[in-house]
Amino acid sequence: MNENALILVLMGSKSDWETMKYTSQTLAQFGVPHECRVLSAHRTPAETVEYVSAAEGRGVEVLIAAAGGAAHLAGVVAAHTVLPVLGVPMKGWALDGLDSLLSTVQMPGGIPVGTLAIGKAGATNAALLAVAILGNKRPELREKLKAFRREQAAKILQEKLE
Ligand code: RP5
Questions:
Q1: Does the C-beta of 44 come closer than 6 Å to ligand 1?
Q2: 130 Cα to the center of ligand 1, angstroms
Q3: What's the average model confidence in pLDDT over 123-145?
Q4: Ligand 1 centre and the CA of 14: distance in Å?
Q5: Is the model's pLDDT at 1 over the cut of 90?
């Protein structure tokens, strides 16, 4: 447990870590204190609710939830907190992650989940979006994001094709 965590990253299974390590790596790159845990909406429902319900009181500002298949984790997380919740659909074992995408993104009105792309791109972008949210009140993080965008653009502009 990281007592200073501003972001909690939940995933439904250890098998999601292969993808969600990119969320953790990106948050670490920006120096954002965070905590990653395996918690499942259907395999550990009580523990998931307990963990999410305590987030606001701990000073957490954003939650990221990743799941595959019938990917209801992000929706369940969002049901138990008013903190912003970002969902990352995992590619899963069937349907190339389309099942996870629809399960995560199609929240009925009233309980929002900001859903990112399937897989690695979504895992990375969830971290970048969380940093942008934190950046609203933290000028140093906003500056880091601007520097990241500049570096990204410079790399593209230097590309040479054989
Ligand atoms: C979901 O089921 C997890 O998020 C994972 O993406 C998927 C498969 O889990 P395992 O069977 O690999 O544990 O709950």
A1: no
A2: 23
A3: 98
A4: 8
A5: no
